[in-house]
Input
Amino acid sequence: MFYREAGQFKTSYAADMAVFPIRQDRIGIAIILALAYLGIPALQNEFLLTSVMIPMLVFSLAAIGLNLLTGYTGLLSLGTGAFMGVGAYACYKLTTLFPGVNIIVWIVASGFVSAFVGVLFGLPSLRIKGFYLAVATLAAQFFLQWCFVRIPWLYNYNASGAIEVPQRTLFGLPVTGANATPETRYLVLLTLVVVLTWFASNIVHGRVGRAWMAVRDMDIAAELMGIRLLPTKLLAFAVSSFYCGVAGAAMMFLWYGGGEANDAFNINQSFTILFMVIIGGLGSLIGSFFGAAFISMLPTILKFGLPAIGIPLSGATAEHLTFLTVGVLIIFFLIVEPHGLARLWQIAKQKLRLWPFPY
Amino acid sequence: MRAPGSDKGQMAGDVLLAVDDVSLSFGGVKAITDVSFDIRKGEIRAIIGPNGAGKTSMLNVINGFYHPQHGRITFKGETRQRMRPHVAASQGIARTFQNVALFKGMSTLDNIMAGRTLKMDGSFFWQLFRHGPAMREEIEHRKVVEEIIDFLEIQAIRKTPVGKLPYGLQKRVELGRALAMEPDLLLLDEPMAGMNLEEKEDMSRFILDVNNQFGTTVALIEHDMGVVMDLSDRVVVLEYGRKIADGTPDEVKRNQAVIDAYLGVPH
Output
């Protein structure tokens, strides 16, 4: 009744090709953005910001990165964690070598470093596909992780062997380091995510996105349309690693505030993000957000939400139960909707269009 | 169908594509043996033959999927032995497949738009913003794609994911995607396989219209002899990788070797 596009006529191709052609969708996006920018910081809830929103945004960014590669271009990668690590270490090196330059510039620049590394490890993708490519990217995961630990230059020879995020400011406000407030970190991260999501959406709706999907769906026919496979796949690796790199830098600088590669950028991280992409929906940007939210928030909700409604949980039991529940829910969702939460969202929207009529 | 006497193949002079002594083998299996024929500008050229005669292999050689061990291919006066598929595409050879090879996850519109990829050369930078030059380019190509959609009468399925379309329509979308490349030579691999009579008639009409209106040269593989004899200007017949006949439909129909190949020889 409320979500119906009747009467919204498009009179130009530009209007028809808009990312959100339906007015209600545009209003919805505006409301979400307003809530994210004004509503959530206004709550002044530090727990909500640091344990829910910031992790979710970081994972969303990484999930978009992997989704561009796996969901849109059809190249399976298990090196996401490592590419995030490249971003984090690149950002750390850059900002300690050139402390005068704005940290935002370095976070974005570290994305480019990660993109370069991603292209290097993407080179085999011309010859190998599917599981075999996944194994090749697994090599990237192990090799890069080894570098993070064994090359002390990368962490500036810190005795702890970990990244120690220094304080950096933006417009006089500390953005990173111990003195940065959760609000500032959240808003900076949110802006990064919004801008990069907008870019990603533009890419996948245009010529490049079509070329990626063509390669995913039928590479032989794509080649015949004049789409050259190697440059197309490498571009996908570059853009994907860029997003993962920025996500990794954001994770270290805006979320963790320091840490070690073996914890943050290990193979588990790669798998977690792959699960997010699969559960959220392959080949869907909004699905990346759903998947990231689902997997990153679920443990928090179980851990803190259940005691809040009177179900006592503590310590190790909570931890185990969380793992168990997450696992069961993942299997449940994959059986109910193998195309992910994004498809459920689509079905819900379709139902809403017709509501209150059955069809 | 085409009026008698409008046999353009005889009149169309220039050779667009010439295949000279092409041989192709996979290990010990000889798929094509010393086949030569030509395709003239503006004609509809049929390639027929029993199953396994090497017809599809021939198309794959022409657009560069297979590299023949022996022989040359001359397209628009340029001779080559090895060819990359994307180079063939940029020279103006488009193709449809025997088993529909559409991009299943994409809409009809996106599939046909993907066919325009070669014509689009906007920078990646503007792609990020989807404004300015990138949007202008997109709209410009959308207009061409809409013309193709009108031509093929598939307006209603514009935004439907092609995986959900019935087979006949998928074939039509695939033709549209090939047309979007504005090819000089259109290779059709069994465009009417698995279609009912009505769909075949539609498809025949589209092929003739493409040939007449856009002047596109067409090479098609087809098993429906009625269609082949009606549509094509000249027919080349392959059997076991060898050419056994070449000529107008009437000549081919009377050729004893062709009759033997299709009906068998009494022992």
Observations:
- Chain B touches chain A at residues 63, 65, 85-86, 88-90, 94-95, 97, 101-106, 110, 113-115, 117-118, 120, 122, 124, 127-130, 134-135, 137-139, 142-143, 146, 177, 181 (CB under 8 Å).
